[in-house]
Amino acid sequence: MNYKYSFTLGEWLYYIFFTLLMIGKSIGLNANNKVLQFMTILAFIMLLIKLLITQYTKREIIICGILIAIGLISYLSSGREGVLLTIITIVGLKNISYRRILYLTLIIRSFIFTSLITLSLTGVIENVTLKHWRDGVGMINRYGLGYDHPNLLHTNLFILVILFIYIFYEKLNITCYIGILAINLLIYNFSISRTGLFAIILALLITIFLKAKLISNRLFYNICKIIIPLCVLFTIVTAFGYSKFDIIKKIDRILSGRIYYSSHFLNNYKWNAFGRNLIGDNNLLDNGYVVLIINYGVIIFGLYILGYYKVVKKFIAYNMNKELLMIILFSIYGVTEGYIPNIFLNLSLIFLSSIIFIKNNDFLI
Question: Does pTM surpass 0.90?
Answer without folding.
Answer: yes
